[in-house]
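Quarterly update from the structural biology core.
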Amino acid sequence: MKKMIYISLLASSLLAGQEDMQSLKEQLKAQQKTIAELMQRLDRIENNQETNIYVENEATTEYVDTMSQPAQINASFNQNAYIPDIGLILNSSIVSRNIDNQAYPEYGTPGYILPGEAELPYNKDRGFNFNYAEVSMYSAVDPYFDAFAIFHMEADSFEIDEGYVTTRDLDYGLRVKAGKFKSAIGRYNELHQHAWDFSEQTLLYSNFFGPEGLSDPGVQLQWVAPTSTYLMVGVEAMQGTNEQSFGYEKGNSLYNTYVKTSLDLSDDTSVLAGVSFMHGKNTFDGDTNIYAADLTVQEQLSSYSSLAWQSEYMYRDMAEDSFHKRQDAMYSQLVYTHNQNYAGGVRFDALMKNNAGDAYANMYTAMIEYKPFEFSRLRLEYSVDESKYFDGQQKNVQQLMLELNVAVGAHSAHNF
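Predicted structure, tokenized:
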């Protein structure tokens, strides 16, 4: 636009070359004044300081130009800054499994899941699965709050997976989150399925919290210590609707306290660790206590190549009337990222102590993935699961799966 103005000035000067010099000077002055006004207006437009809006009253709808009436309109208001960033995730898979589609939903895991009561949101059928579409939104609300929402859509359901606000720029390293959100217990729980390193949920999370983890209405307070080494302390008060370990219906009853830290052992080696204690009421009006610990070590081999070892352990003491379920579970995984396109990994899962049923059930998983670009992924995964029982008999579930995941629109980076 600025170039067009200067071209217009040059053309006008050439056309006026044969006119009277005094007349030319007057025209140049008039054009310079017009150009100055246009430049000021252009700067305002480029800086989003000019907004033409309609003002409605009881009698009429009036067009108001904020340039001509700056005293009546707050010219610093920028509506564009309040339009949310929107992202879309699509996830589908092809599954080969040695258990047919009628029998598979009827499985049970002694002490954890009753036969036929398992949730199966991902990769349910042998054959083709459209697992979900996930829509995410983020926007700054004002100078004090940010807003986040994630909507989870499956073939026959729609739910608000997360919807919360977080504070901005609180003093003393504090941050508050309120709404419905995923608990910060452990490492995997805060991640959505498309951000997992493996397509199947761990035995630990699927048996303690369900395949989608623990997400509840509540409030969270975090404090980051003013130290050279990262140290964060957090507390959560949540409703406690997760029936796998809690599910108390008479009021909010779930509380979590956690500490997370990280340090760099060298320029290429990073360590993250965390511990959590969660307490709540369950459907039997008894107490459930969960103790959790996690450790992640990552070695950066080159700009796009890394090796990451990650492990989690949880112990659950769940009172059901006069009986206490005392159970623990863990997983340990190793993921090698070769470059921007290829990665592979292995994982070992174990349900260990379990005084409410058979113990020492394991799962073995291996995967290789190809990412043509940052926002698309093909993952081939094979697993052998020893934890599932059908008609009271344990069967090894062998599964081969090809998963396709694509992301479009605005999408934030995942936490390491």
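The chain has two domains: 2-64, 91-409.
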